[in-house]
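Progress narrative, work stream C.
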Amino acid sequence: MCYALAVASRQESQTKRARAQELLGLFAYHHDAPLVARALGVSMEALVGELEALKIRRRAFSLTRRTDAQMPMAAPVRGAKSGPPVRRRKAEGAPPAPSLPKRSERDQQELELKSLLAEVGPRRSALTSRLGGISEAALLARFRAAGLEREFALRERDLIRALYSRHRWREALVAEDLALPMARLRAVISERGLSAELDRLLDRIRREERGQKWPRQRIAQVLYRRDQLRELGLLEELEGEVAARTRVLWTKVRARPQPLDELRKALQLTTSDAVKLRELLDLR
């Protein structure tokens, strides 16, 4: 039995190592986490969770900040046999090898912008800063001139989707992550045609928030996540529900020797949470 467990553990370790190498290879190829998630057909949250489970999250995201030139060079396999030596005689009067054609200005600009995009991602503020503080209009014009307008648009859409999902539609945090003013963020969303898609995401998150269980999860929402609920337009609704149900219980226990303790037990709360709830609802 111990032998079987050891074999199973070894096989599991080998499977994890193989999966880790596969994910690192995708990050090295795409240089962008949202593109990796899209290639695998999973959400960013699921991808980050798997990276953390495999303990390669830092290694994987470090690959998104490298250019192709910074990737490690391939090394020969140790112990591999090479073929027989080949002797070549230099032909007399042979013409010199043709030199590679010089890149055009457009090709050079495309290469530079691809490298920069792989390094910092499709973040407008970071890109404009790295390009000498140019305007957004000039930034988009450069990508258009280099033939990269579509690639930039796709990657920017993926990034915005991932950030809204990660921050559970808290626009202030998304704007902060992108270093954009709120009004500018909304303009970019409209420009990229993401408004309807993000509205559907908002509806899904609202359903999830409304589906939290009573009493502990619902009360924790109202006590500790008020800013998020306010931004989702749910604070008044959920706080009203908590207030109505809590006051019914408070009416029953208010005349007892230890009403707060009775309320705490009925709502399955800690003492500190019960105190905060009483102060929030002004229970007397």
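Work stream C, second folded protein:
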Amino acid sequence: MSGTLVLVRHGQSDWNLKNLFTGWKDPDLTELGIQEANTGGKALVDYGIKFDVAFTSDLKRAQDTLKIILDNVGQPDLKTFRDQALNERDYGDLSGLNKDDARAKWGEEQVHIWRRSYDVPPPGGESLRDTGARVWPYYLTEILPRVLRGEKVLVAAHGNSLRSLVMVLDKLTKEQILGVNLATGVPMVYKLNADSTVASKEVLGDMSGAH
């Protein structure tokens, strides 16, 4: 058996709460988001894991979630790599807009296509496929080799950057991934085989909060 890969979506951010498209914008966590990160950290303590290295995005909400989790597991000084390859999907012209205002401007159906299609990007932004096109190479070159060497690796990132990883790990089709929502602050623990396929997957905590 090779190593362990743990994926965590950041806790609720201020803009999640306000129903705004966030993308590469950089709002803080809310009180609930901090609580979600703490809950995720406690779940990892209960699971009994210690990490060798961590990865996160260039955005504060993921970095802060990671810091809270590492404080919980007693590894505040863990070696950490930050890279915009793990950033949330760039929503382009939608960034900072209220989702209801966007629907009023472009229509319910068009906004739904931008949010939920696999390969149709919003104006000036990225589709899920585009997001995967920067996440996958980074995973293959920077993260996966460490897991295959037997390391325990923690990745704190975003709904769409992690969905593009989950799509590959769980062998989901581009239709199946559209129905997948990742709960905020809930760790997903993958054990990988030597050939990089998934030996097991465990979700730590209550999934009822998924949205």
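The domain at 4-209 is CATH 3.40.50.1240 (Rossmann fold). No further action is required on this item.
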